[in-house]
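Tutorial, part two.
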Amino acid sequence: MQPSDFTEDRWGKLLRHREGFWYFVPDQLPPRLAPDWNLTSALSEADRSLSELAGLSRNVPNPHLLIGAFIRKEAVLSSRIEGTQASLSDLFLFEAGEAESPKPPDVREVANYVHALEFGLKRLTELPISLRLLREIHSRLMGGVRGEHLTPGEFRTSPNWIGPPGCTLLDATYVPPAPLEMTEALGDLERYLHAASDLPPLVRLALIHYQFEAIHPFLDGNGRMGRLLISLLLCHERLLPQPLLYLSAFFERHRDQYYGALWEVSRSGRWHQWIALFLQAVASQSRDVIRRTGRLLDLRESYRQRFQQTRSSTLLLRLVDQLFESPYTTISLAAKVLGVTRRPAALNIKKLVDSGILNEATGRERSKIYIAREILDTIERPNPD
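Running the prediction step on this input gives:
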């Protein structure tokens, strides 16, 4: 990273470290944003789509049936941006107890993301979004996986950098603030998180996401933490009652634009380009979740009607509902969910297999795992924008 990489309109200052490399310190939020009709139009579309999603989530009879699957989709796609190869099926298999999961290290990283987000959402009932909360979440995100030696739950005390494999601080693409300036920038960011603002909430979220990524306060896991912070803020700011929006799906599909827009804020102060992309992500993914939720609810209703007409037990209907939280199950998991022994759990799974809702996924005689393929396909199906 060199001063020549940046323009005079950059969002921050360049400083030279005593060891010879340059690093970037972002300015304090908020920036001055000139009026822009294109941005206003993008904000209107994002607000409208997000409000429709919020209304839908408030009216869904059992929103918790969908939250688990959507959180896991966000975890998979946010982690994939950072290079993991685990799929949503891999994660569901891992959580169902599949010991021979194809990529255990990657799957554990994704599972950690789920635990970290669920922990953060629960912790918000006790603690505001703060540097303390970010450290607590990071410790759960990075514990027991690649990067666990890089001080999980602690802000870095040494420089880090972004660039191609094998690069150094001297030839990195981007070097965030050194520890002293990083600490000051984090303090400013925390104050901004708690301050009143006249900016539209979604614009403010876009600013915060950029600022966190520019500060890069941890030795590892910054990208996932920054995207996880968006999910927390959407709920904390009451823009959504439940964490149903998975923006990482959009950022993963448009990875070059995503990184490019963030870089252009630092390099040339082009805030409008980044904010417009963020708002496009909100609008696109809100519409996707609305469509996907409708398909899942229709599917659930068709299953329930099928079994209610045959006067099936409430246990079977509860097991059907559980499949919308996780479309993989086992006899042991079913017994735990239903609060029964293995025999009635096995009988209810057999009824779902006979009806075509479940299929055995392993081909084994023991430790069988069953999959609700229609549900999984509805959750996993790519969004073409």
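The domain at 310-380 is CATH 1.10.10.10 (Arc Repressor Mutant, subunit A). In part three we will examine how such features are distributed along the chain.
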